[in-house]
UniProtKB/TrEMBL annotation:
<dbReference type="InterPro" id="IPR036397">
    <property type="entry name" value="RNaseH_sf"/>
</dbReference>
<dbReference type="InterPro" id="IPR012337">
    <property type="entry name" value="RNaseH-like_sf"/>
</dbReference>
<dbReference type="GO" id="GO:0004523">
    <property type="term" value="F:RNA-DNA hybrid ribonuclease activity"/>
</dbReference>
<dbReference type="GO" id="GO:0003676">
    <property type="term" value="F:nucleic acid binding"/>
</dbReference>
<protein>
    <submittedName>
        <fullName>Putative ribonuclease H-like domain-containing protein</fullName>
    </submittedName>
</protein>
<dbReference type="Pfam" id="PF13456">
    <property type="entry name" value="RVT_3"/>
</dbReference>
<dbReference type="InterPro" id="IPR044730">
    <property type="entry name" value="RNase_H-like_dom_plant"/>
</dbReference>
<dbReference type="InterPro" id="IPR053151">
    <property type="entry name" value="RNase_H-like"/>
</dbReference>
<feature type="domain" description="RNase H type-1">
    <location>
        <begin position="44"/>
        <end position="162"/>
    </location>
</feature>
<dbReference type="InterPro" id="IPR002156">
    <property type="entry name" value="RNaseH_domain"/>
</dbReference>
């Protein structure tokens, strides 16, 4: 009897919808920076541009499994779009990590497109960008590198560094051995595991078969 009722309910419910349809709604999640596992270093990289790409820059920072600041970097990159600024930020971070003999690295970015590019999840129809090729070359070396996606709220320190470099005129890589004083409040939030609300889209996919719920 229960199975019969379940079947009737599904048939009645699906009959009111087209064969394929997506419904979308938003839900609240809370996002914060997470410490890497013991023995690993976390790199949060970022890139941004303003003025239609006329003013672009990138930055990033390394932290230990205790959340301790290890080093940071910033650089202005001139005229480019946001994705290339993100590429610069990730490449400079990976190159610095290898030169510093880091052997286990977690790289976090809020650019899903960038992560798909460097992990081979999406392919280019034309020539591979030079920076992406350099990243691929670094990944063939003898070390362990993982790439994770995070929301912007999970990398507020890297976001601040990138915004900061846009106000400067230097086009050389600047290494930051200590966090800037203006960054201390963000850094404290991360250490204390403060989370921030974010609305994400929940996609409910309907088809002639079973219902599927997908969070995007």
């Amino acid at each position: 009897m229960d199975m019969e009722k379940k079947g009737i309910f599904e048939n009645d419910f699906c009959s009111t919808l087209p064969p394929h349809r997506n419904l979308q709604q938003k839900e609240m999640i809370y996002v914060g920076w997470d410490k890497p596992p013991e023995g690993w270093i976390k790199l949060n990289s970022d890139g941004a541009c303003k003025g239609g790409g006329e003013n672009s820059g990138c930055g990033g920072l390394f932290r230990s499994s205790d959340g301790i600041w290890l080093k940071g970097y910033i650089r202005k990159v001139g005229v480019c779009d946001a994705l290339h600024a993100e590429l610069w930020g990730m490449y400079l971070g990976l190159d610095m990590a290898w030169r510093e003999h880091i052997t286990q690295l977690i790289v976090e970015s809020d650019s899903k497109t960038l992560i798909d590019m460097v992990t081979g999840s999406c392919m280019f129809s034309g020539a591979i960008p030079t920076l992406e090729r350099r990243i691929h070359n670094l990944l063939t070396l003898d070390w362990h590198v993982q790439f994770h996606y995070t929301w912007r709220e999970g990398k507020r320190c890297a976001d601040w560094l990138t915004t900061f470099i846009l106000s400067l005129d230097s086009f050389v890589v600047t290494r930051l051995e200590y966090p800037p004083s203006e960054l201390h409040s963000f850094f404290f939030d991360d250490i204390s595991r403060t989370c921030f609300p974010r609305h994400v889209q929940l996609v409910i996919e309907f088809s002639a078969g079973p219902l599927a719920f997908v969070q995007k």
